[in-house]
Specification:
The protein has 133 residues and is an alpha/beta fold. It has five helices and six strands, in the order βαββαβαβαβα.
Length: 133
Amino acid sequence: MRIVIIGSGRLGSRLASLFTKRGDSVLMVEQNESKFMYIEDRQGIEFLAGNGADDNIIRDALKKPADIVIVATGNDYTNILISQKIKLLDKTIRIITRLFDVSLATVYTELGIEILCPTSLTIDALLKMPGIS
């Protein structure tokens, strides 16, 4: 499987390492090229330095067909913009986007963009804990 990850923070970096360990092909896109140095296991990961919201960078990232694009920058609005641009470029690609703001999630799910919201996941997990529910 070929996976493109946009954003190499804690989430993107860990995912890249996990995916390559299971044998997937991973391309990481990051504006701040120095962040690539902090990825523990870089073996098997391709890197593309540039702004993930830039049309040319998106096209470069998708030159080779991708099965999944994970958009995980630290900014909800940037993640939404990138996801929309990718969706316009390739309607068939699976896009999974991290959003922190729960109120934004519904709108983008309706557009066919899969959302992971750590805020919602944390609330759900908390409410299932003994003594809280």
